[in-house]
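Notebook entry, structure prediction.
Reason for the run: the old model in the group folder had no record of what sequence produced it. Starting over properly, with the input documented here first.
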Amino acid sequence: MRFILGVLVGLVALALAAALFVYWFDFATGVAAASGLGALGYVFLWLAFGANLLLWTVVGLLRLGEDSVRSAASRRRVARAGRAQVEPELERVLVGAGAGSGPLPDTVEDGPEPTGNPVATTDADDGPADPIDPEDLSIAVVIPAHNEEPVIEAAIASALRLFARWDVYVVSDASADTTAEIAAGTGVNVLELLNNRGKAGAIEAVVEEFGLTDHYDGVLILDADTELDDRYVEGARRQLAEPDVAAVAGFVVSEWKPDERSFVGRLISAYRDRLYFMLQYLMRFGQTWRHANVSFIVPGFASVYRTSALREIDINPRGLVIEDFNMTFEVHHKRLGRVSMNPDTKAYSQDPFTLRDYYRQVSRWTLGFWQTIRRHKLWPSSFCAALVLYVFEVVVVSLVLLATVLAGAFVALGTFGGDAVMALPFFEDGFTAVSAFLPLSAVLIGLFVPDYMLTCLMAMVRRRPSYLVYGLFFFPVRIVDAFLALRTIPKAWTARSDGRWSSPVRAKQG
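New structure, fully documented this time:
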């Protein structure tokens, strides 16, 4: 019954998206034809969905085609090798070998050592190594935490499903609650910092304290509010086995637990789910194609860095509010390798529960992005070319969106305000001019309808009819995002951050 209901929801959402697209396309083509801009008017029409989104969707389709060809060729090679394999004749017999006086491997009485495989790692100066078996790659899990008492146990339990206990390292960054005690009770490695250093400082401290770059092939940075998918390690190791990969970006999925959230909390989670889906499948998938390699972010919630690359990264430079943009730029700027991303490294992240926490989180993210650009500047590369295109679109779209909303509010005030509003000085003349150029219907249909179409498609993919309700309020959230994207630009050049964090409201996981 649940399956049938899900299919029906998907069909309804798809039909609604198709109807809205037909209506919007008919309206928008009429506006484009009346504009007198010719072909340029139709170009602007499709830019309503985003130039970067369209560009990298096309590149992603090219990558998908190449990956399919590579996968088919690999299967054929394996099949041919299996048919041709013949048991070789025994040519040599090992009679004996020199032995030292120390204990045999795996017999150390002090407990198991980290499962590092130094032979598998490569120094940055040595160039890429030969391909290795993914199963031979060792990965340490680092969980930085600050006052994460409600969620830290679930994050550790998630890691322990996939990793040995001695490969998990929790660093409590001056937590005032029982974060460190809960972590210690699980038997994993725990480092407690007495001074709040921020997430980047905590990561730097635990890597240095335990010498992780000397004992492992990769380091997984896992947020305390994140739980790993059961296939995460398999996917991460498979990607890290390619010698030119410096970092494996986690594939974020918004945790959907509607019973634990208020209406606002569910709205935020649904909005984030749509945003992550579009950015990762339609944009970042193309950006992380081996022939492109221009992804701007290796998300800090659940991503793996090759230790040979991590040694070269300045994890905690002064003046940055967050670390993940900077670490990604370091990979590109220092040419440490490429960023890889596939949907087989899913992890489930807890989104903010309140508008206040959402506002603060997005402010930190956007400020961190602009601060990273300020720090690294631009250098000749395809990465920076893609970055300039992205930044240009973010700024222009944010300005146009806010200006259009203000114009729409002005027209709405004149339309519904009556004679009292029209009697205000100069208002009637301004209303006549603005409404002639930008009627209220154009604002509603041109901006809201394309946004809601994407929500309908997301409701179909997830089979969640509630998205059709929450989607009615996504557009105001987009306005907040646009405002913060512009507001934090001057702050990136005028304010300095120490990276210290304060955790938002959490729901206990389990």
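Summary: Residues 89-114, 116-128 have pLDDT under 50 and may be disordered.
The old model has been moved to the deprecated folder.
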